[in-house]
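Hi R.,

Here's the chain you asked about this morning:
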Amino acid sequence: MSETRFRSIAILGSGSFGTGIAKLLSPKVESIVLIGRDAGAAETINREHRNPHYLPDIVLPENVTASSDPADALAHPLLIFVVPTSATRATALNLSELGLPQDRVLLSCAKGIEKQTGDRMSEVLREVFPSNPVAALSGPNHAEEIAAGMATCAVIGSEDPQLALSLQDLFTLPHFRSYTSDDLPGIEIGGAVKNIYAIAAGMAHGLGLGDNAVAALVTRALAEMTRLGTALGGRTETFSGLSGVGDLIVTCFSSHSRNHRVGLALGSGKTLDEAVKSLGMVAEGVPNTLSIHEAARRANVRTPIIDAVYAILYEGKPAPLAMKELLSRDPRPECG
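And the predicted structure, written out as tokens:
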């Protein structure tokens, strides 16, 4: 174990990413507790050192345990939130009611914005815990590869440079390299919006539109992401980094991408319910499409790709028609 500010960690959410992060950070700390809702799964993790539902082939070290009691998070100096974005506020409110101390560091790894409020996850945490240090981690970070010890990079966003450096130290391992940034809005928006574009890329693949079309779609998605992200408070250069183009690339093309797989199913003719059911896990891009479409309309930003995915998911527009309309829009300058 190396020296770090954080001697123990609580991870809120025992899905794939929580499991992967637990495996990643286990050499750096004395103990890690994975906290989920399934008491039976927690018992299995404690007994067999494997998560029975997520990444079941990954053996977790002895210093990783599991619990279904949120109160078990209170004693740890660092709490990592990997619950779905729709559950972040409820999880935070529960911890607040349990009396979470003000010195506990809160790190958000959830990628999305809250429906109706349009709040980023760090803003949700800040609202519930106005005195606690808050940061966010994002980037091209598939849990399967992190857990397997494959080379990965991430960016850690925080308005507190010392906190960012402390978290960077924690998330620096031979196979995991982290960077820091003070552009918390840009990092979180990039990580959220790319989920929608992954659905669009999956649909394009499912429709058999070809590599040229998918490459063009992803390139225009980056332009759209930057346009929306800067309107919502991010900096332009952030979207050329790990939480922007980096996360966009991996999510739009990787076989690990849940959102791409949902889009692929839709492009192949399945309904949204069928696509989500066949996945068997949360694809954040589906609820993100609703919340981010709302945010784009409030900001009055032109987002044709997001609009097309929204029309497919929530207005019943056929995927082939939506993609055709994207290609047949009025010509315009590339950088306009």
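The first strand starts at residue 8 and ends at 12.

Let me know if you need anything else.
M.
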